[in-house]
Amino acid sequence: MATKSRKYRALSELLPFQSSSDRKGCFALPRSSATTHRSRCGEEKCLLLQYRNKVQESVFRAEVKKTEGEKLCFFAFLRKPNMASSMRSLISNHSRYVESFRLFLENSTEHECMLEFIEKKLPDIISSIGNGKSAINILSVGGGAGTARYPGVAINHEVIEPSDEQICHYKDRVAKTSNLENVKFTWHKETSHEYERRMNAKQEFKKWDFVHMIQMLYYVQDIAATIRYFHSLLDAKAKLLIIIVSGSSGWDTLWKKYGSLLPLNAPSCYVSSADIKKVLDTEGLKYQLFELPSSMDITNCFIEGNKDGELLLDFLTETYEFSKTAPLHLKNAIMEDLKKPECSGERDGKVFFNNNLSAIVIEP
């Protein structure tokens, strides 16, 4: 059997094994699991394999082994593709990432749907956190450039954010926002894990009235442990808010199917509200989930050579110059799926990607 050092994995780990002595050096993959393909022994070919809703581009090799009775037994091995030579993470080019993110915000209703939830629904949900208190404590984990207003009571608002750029944006927004005289801001340039480690080292276990994690759980290594830790810091009437892409969104569809083929930046992971729900249910935590409808106009993605379309494709796939560097069959497969109802819908001749978010409010 192949070893990891040879960078092969047994196909039998993924698919029901088949062997036949009358195929004379050929093997077949089950029609129910993959495209049927035959290969002569030792021959290497490319194969787009679909298995359990995941697509993997692999190189396979057939090897012949002898079994008892001298019957031939055929083994196939899959080798994970090496995309490094052609596909790079979008994060590897900061200026292009910034440009594609700007286009994403211009073409999507992401900020609008979050703002509507925060201004119209959230106040009632967290109205009890300040009852009987002269001051409330708010902890923003990976808060980016967002702001929060709680008039009429002193606010201690601490922010955990590892990015200098995001901290600068945050401070700039605070400086331009009125009616924040009662809010004291403190910024910690560190990751959530670094914050946890620092607090544990100091034996400091401060309680918080409101903790929010908005679009940040993609960047932690252990999601369950992170939620568990910050949930342990909630005061009696406190709330923990998580905002993340919805399990019903086009993002979730793309990630589940193509995540293993795209050069995701190392600190990131593919996670949606469906994954968070599983964690919360396993932990036995009480929570409310709110769907935040959002869309993104990706019509330009289907216009060959359109600059804005190519930038949006980069953002959708988190790949630098996806249109130019992705293997043709991978690009065609993603472009085809982007038009399907699982990812997008059409209105007035335009294609709108399902950018739905979920807001999850967790009880103490």
From TrEMBL:
Keywords linked to the UniProt accession: Methyltransferase, S-adenosyl-L-methionine, Transferase
Domain of life of the native organism: Eukaryota
TM region(s), chain numbering: none
One GO biological process term: methylation
GO molecular function list: N-methyltransferase activity
The keyword Secreted is assigned to this record: no
InterPro entries in UniProt: HHMT-like, SAM-dependent_MTases_sf
Keyword Ribonucleoprotein applies: no
Quaternary structure note: Monomer.
Name of this chain's protein: Histamine N-methyltransferase-like isoform X2
